[in-house]
Amino acid sequence: MSEAMYHLGIATSRCLAVVATGDEVYREKLLPGAIVTRVSASHVRVGTFEYFAARGQMDVVKKLADFVIQRHYPELIGSDDKYRGLLNAVITRHIALINHWLRVGFIHGVMNTDNTLLSGDTIDYGPCAMLGVYHPATVFSSIDRRGRYAFGQQAHIMQWNMARLAECLMPLFTGDDHQSLSHAEEDIKAIPELHMTAFVAMMNRKLGFTHSLFSEQWVADFLQRMQSKQLDYTTTFKALTDNAKSSTEDTVLMSQLGDFYQQWRQQLISADLETIHQTMATHNPIVIARNHDVEKVLTAAVEDKNLGPFNTLLQVLQSPYQITAHTAQFQQPAADYDASYQTFCGT
Question: Active-site residue numbers?
Fold first, then answer.
């Protein structure tokens, strides 16, 4: 999955190797054991800061913050309030990360602070899955019984994680305790608006426009229409992308999206269709790592010792914005499968 994310253009850790141990481990069932070697720009997490802050080891928190600044945010070196700057730089990266997840339909499944990297990369793919039919409450992780990490909740959880980071960094801020608390609260409270601005801009790009032509309310209503019609997220945007370069309306899209489709088509009249299509083609993947396909190739690899299907899917996912020889066999949604699908953290 991390390779799929990498080729989708999303900041992520990557898998260098998987080595079978020969042992078995107990999870949802007895499974063959393996060790994953995961590489990233660094593995410093919000939870890393929490660990030392909870023990009152602020000298270590400061050293850790200085390391992160030097490694990931060198532009902050020498700034007046570099630790507040660090908080805001991490917030900026995570707003961008979450909006990329929402762009392609990625559901992380376990967004705790130990899975929130200061570098802004995606890590821990244990219970992750991909959105099929659009619904913001979609959950696949077996342990997420209350929907804390649901597709549409991921921005809220990101804000919560950033608040935990702020608690760790506040003692390092310039100023007294009252000023530090005020600044931290200001920065955390600003996240929803910053996220929504980025989200609306991202959704406009999925619809072909590099400026926010469609408003926050229009986008919300459009997604509500997708939800009520139980439309597949990836397939719908692919169909819109294909239709953007056509001079004729798509009757299926018209039936599915109604006035929203008409309003979108109306905006195309005075637009450069080639530019619109290119923008959509670079923001809407043709193929994603659909849940049923992932499980199918993993089953073949584990139970049948056959890596052929795995390698074929991997090859397709390395070109998610282009048609390749095997793309078509991995494009089909499986709504019935997703309806009962559950993921488990195998780590």
Answer: 114
